[in-house]
């Protein structure tokens, strides 16, 4: 099930990443202004912002299997539509729909990890699950520029539609929803009653055990809003939004930076970006395992933010110097660090929110990230046009630096 979650999320990531890797074709070959091409790349991020919380609530209500299968099925239809439409405006609108359709794999696959893995293994498991985003980006970097250049813009959308169609069937048949603790019943005085009978209580003879990793006596409480308990969730949301800037800057403009600014060939640039993303995917697993060993998500998030500042300054400096080997090393390091934090934040959010709120909280988490991602495309495109790639990359180091002031001192675990 974890593998299916990874494949489903990687495939929907491929779909919404396609426009970012059409930028070299549009900007370098067809002369489309960089800011305008960045708007096209941002369209899926805009669309996904409208549905992430809805998809999270849908997963909370109907379970992970239905949510993931519905998401991938909807993405098949949108991918086919994207292959059919013509014109910049219509393609941008359909790409917005692709983001709206793709949001289901974000929250639902995260719920699978939290539901099926105990806390001491969640960091590693969520790191594996979070490999899906850089894997999808890496495959897009390798496939989209060449395929679109030789077979036209519709070709990448037709390819991902076929893959998503197969995954829709596999997810519908093979995914099992994570077990849930019994739901607490609100009393008239506002307290929560235990399950209706002793036979229904967690751990009672003849009943299923509580979900792996759930705290003793935990309940699937949808009425206990975790946002009212403390500022922890809001602070993690804010940190992740700030750390999204370097990640999406490199994902959107890394390829065209190597081609247009550093003079690399399209094939070499694609291999470099894909390699960086694959290293980033492995890095998410390693970082997740480290957080399990350390026993604190927030401590590792703070360390990642510091290294992210270093990474963006390094790639900015490499861009100024124009040395190919240094540029490659800087790109790999900056990509690794800028993508490393997502699994940590997802795990921290799900643990703090509890089983009754994890889908919605993860939806809110992703909404903030994709709102920032939507702003990164056009704003960074305009900034790069004015100051150039190296200085723009160096300035991005300000956002992870700012996040250091918001990282909570300790974890908040409700489940």
TrEMBL record:
Domain annotation Major facilitator superfamily (MFS) profile: ranges: 1-411
Lipid bilayer topology: Multi-pass membrane protein
Cited Pfam families: MFS_1
PROSITE patterns: MFS
Region (Disordered): 186-220
Transmembrane segment boundaries: 39-59, 66-84, 90-114, 135-151, 157-175, 238-259, 271-291, 303-336, 380-407
Gene3D superfamilies (UniProt xref): MFS general substrate transporter like domains
Subcellular localization(s) per the UniProt record: Cell membrane
Domain of life: Bacteria
UniProt keyword annotation of Transmembrane present: yes
Alphabetical keyword list: Membrane, Transmembrane, Transmembrane helix
InterPro entries per record: MFS, MFS-Transporter, MFS_dom, MFS_trans_sf
Name this polypeptide is given: MFS transporter
Composition bias type Low complexity, residue spans: 193-206
């Amino acid at each position: 099930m974890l593998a299916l979650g990874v494949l489903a999320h990687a495939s929907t990531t491929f779909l919404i990443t396609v426009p970012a890797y059409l930028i070299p074709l549009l900007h370098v070959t067809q002369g489309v202004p960089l800011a305008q091409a960045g708007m096209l790349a941002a369209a899926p991020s805009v669309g996904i912002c409208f549905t992430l919380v809805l998809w999270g609530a849908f997963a909370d209500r109907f379970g992970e299997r239905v949510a993931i299968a519905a998401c991938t099925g909807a993405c098949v239809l949108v991918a086919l539509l994207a292959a059919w439409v013509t014109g910049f405006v219509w393609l941008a609108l359909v790409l917005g729909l692709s983001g709206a359709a793709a949001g289901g794999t974000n929250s639902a696959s995260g719920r699978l990890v939290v539901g099926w893995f105990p806390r001491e293994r969640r960091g590693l498991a969520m790191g594996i699950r979070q490999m899906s985003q850089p894997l999808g980006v890496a495959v897009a970097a390798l496939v989209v520029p060449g395929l679109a250049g030789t077979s036209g813009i519709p070709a990448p959308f037709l390819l991902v539609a076929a893959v998503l169609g197969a995954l829709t069937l596999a997810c519908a048949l093979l995914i099992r929803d994570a077990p849930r603790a019994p739901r607490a019943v609100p009393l008239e005085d506002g307290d929560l009653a235990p399950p209706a009978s002793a036979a229904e209580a967690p751990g009672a003879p003849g009943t299923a055990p509580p979900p792996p990793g759930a705290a003793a006596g935990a309940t699937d409480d949808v009425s206990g809003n975790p946002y009212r308990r403390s500022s922890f969730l809001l602070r993690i949301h804010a940190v992740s939004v700030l750390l999204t800037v370097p990640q999406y800057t490199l994902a959107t403009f890394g390829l065209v930076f190597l081609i247009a600014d550093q003079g690399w060939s399209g094939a070499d640039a694609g291999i470099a970006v894909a390699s960086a993303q694959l290293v980033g995917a492995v890095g998410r697993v390693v970082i997740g395992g480290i957080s399990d060993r350390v026993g604190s998500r927030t401590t590792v998030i703070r360390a990642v933010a510091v290294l992210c500042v270093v990474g963006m300054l390094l790639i900015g400096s490499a861009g100024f110097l124009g040395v190919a080997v240094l540029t490659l090393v800087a790109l790999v390091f900056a990509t690794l660090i800028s993508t490393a934090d997502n699994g940590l934040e997802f795990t921290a959010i799900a643990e703090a929110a509890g089983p009754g709120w994890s889908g919605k909280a993860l939806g809110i988490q992703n909404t903030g990230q994709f709102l920032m991602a939507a702003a990164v495309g056009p704003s960074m495109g305009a900034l790069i046009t004015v100051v150039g790639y190296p200085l723009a990359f160096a300035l991005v180091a300000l956002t992870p630096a700012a996040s250091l002031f918001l990282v909570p001192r300790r974890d908040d675990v409700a489940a």
